[in-house]
Amino acid sequence: MATDDTGYKLLFSHPEMVRDLITGFVPGEWVGEADFSTLTPEKSSFVSDSEKERHDDLVWRVRLRDRWLWVYLLLEFQSTPDPWMAVRVMVYVGLLAQDLIRRQQTQDGRLPPILPIVLYNGAPGWTAAMDVADCFVPPPKGLHSFQPRLMYHLVDEARLAVHPDEPVRNLSEALFRLEHSRRPVDIRRVLQALDGLLRDEAHQSLRRAFSVWVRRLLRRKVPESHIREVDGITDFMEADSMLAETIEGWFEEAKREGLETGLQQGLQQGLQQGLQQGLEQGLEQGRQEATAEAKRRTARNLLAIGVLSDDQVAAATELPRDEIRCLRDEL
Q1: CB 101 within 8 A of CB 56
Q2: 197: Cβ–Cβ under 8 A, 6 or more apart, which residues?
Q3: CA torsion sign, 227 to 232 to 235 to 238?
Q4: Are residues 39 and 20 in contact, defined by beta-carbon separation less than 8 angstroms?
Q5: So where are the chain's domains?
Q6: pTM for this one?
Q7: Contact 215/230 with Cβ under 8 angstroms?
Q8: Among candidates 11, 105, 101, which has minimal Cα distance to 58?
Q9: Per-residue pLDDT tens for 234-256?
């Protein structure tokens, strides 16, 4: 189910989302040392030697005691995993490092640590290498130390250990659960949780961003006849009973339309297959009848000559002996 990344970029432009992504889905003792109140968005467009720019990713930095950590967040919404993702990440981190050098964002003459995160929401499981070293064939002896090494942290949404009936832990988890919800009750539960998490006035910008994203989600799930109703809702996190019942009704109608469409398509396909099968059977029957008639003509000619016996004519034409006798009687 790959989604366009515009809504995700809008959501992860808020520090609360990045904080919850890291604290909820990135391991390491360093997380406890991070001061997430210092999360700061940074320039995320870098010019390479070929003058091509990247605008697709998000870059943040967060304070770790006496240093800064840079977080490179790559949103991956292709339908299947990119087998060369590790190479792409190596290039992007290199471009970020060059940019940090140009802007003198170094510490004691060295670059700050960089954490690359790949956020993937595709249906197939992630099979691509997560260490760029695994993208290369094994080098000859003595050259191992010259091979590049760089890993990224993968957040594979569809395979996170998140149960739909458990309480929503944080904002990023709410996003992932909405993305993969299959039942209206699951969507309602997450929206109710978001309503509580985003009531504060300081979170109104993020609340609006979630509403925009939920609207796009529902536009993909409800019948086209109700798109205008979806667009007319300004706050999907009010979570009142009327909205819950409305979403339930939309999903039921979409299910019925899907069943009807599937039935019509199945009937049409069955009719086409039946016609094709009937045509093929008719042609085969015609070929068989034409062949049988040709054999009977040959048998009549042989019988008319009067040289061969009935058994010999039957062997020559592959017709039953009883049919040969009938043909002789007709002469």
Answers
A1: no
A2: 168, 170, 171, 174, 203
A3: negative
A4: no
A5: 6-138+146-239, 294-331
A6: 0.69
A7: yes
A8: 11
A9: 777 775 555 656 676 666 665 66
